[in-house]
Specification:
The protein is mainly alpha-helical and about 120 residues long. Helices cover about 60% and strands about 5% of the residues. The longest helix has 21 residues, at about 100-120. The protein is globular, with a radius of gyration of 16 Å.
């Protein structure tokens, strides 16, 4: 068994510290002002490309995958020539209502809290 295989097996039970660090940065910007959630979600859309399900435990991966999937369900916005104008995350967030954005912020924040508990980081 290689070290990488062993590390992969160890990470199955808990989320990776990387996801905790990146989610903490994302959540700190998202919770700064809930009323600006749409604009903040769009400005932080890069996190949804950086953070993938593989960094989460088996228990939390489906939750992140669901969030990421919903945030890109409208696909990228394309111009008349078929060139991408905005990526799928920004295009989808643009089409979400303010309440949907607020709800998404709460879902992301709740997932962050679960990761924090899983890694046993108290407040």
């Amino acid at each position: 068994m290689t070290i990488e295989t062993l590390n992969d097996k160890l990470l199955v039970n808990k989320s990776n510290i990387f996801v905790y660090i990146e989610l903490s940065k994302l959540v700190s910007s998202l919770t700064a002002n809930v009323l600006l959630s749409k604009e903040i979600l769009k400005s932080q859309a890069g996190y949804f490309n950086i953070i993938t399900g593989k960094y989460f435990s088996d228990a939390l991966c489906p939750e992140w995958e669901s969030i990421a999937s919903e945030l890109k369900e409208k696909g990228p916005q394309k111009d008349q020539e078929g060139k991408i104008k905005t990526n799928a995350f920004i295009n989808t967030i643009d089409q979400m209502s303010q309440q949907e954005c607020i709800d998404m912020v709460f879902r992301i924040t709740a997932l962050y809290e679960k990761v924090k508990l899983e890694l046993e980081f108290p407040d």
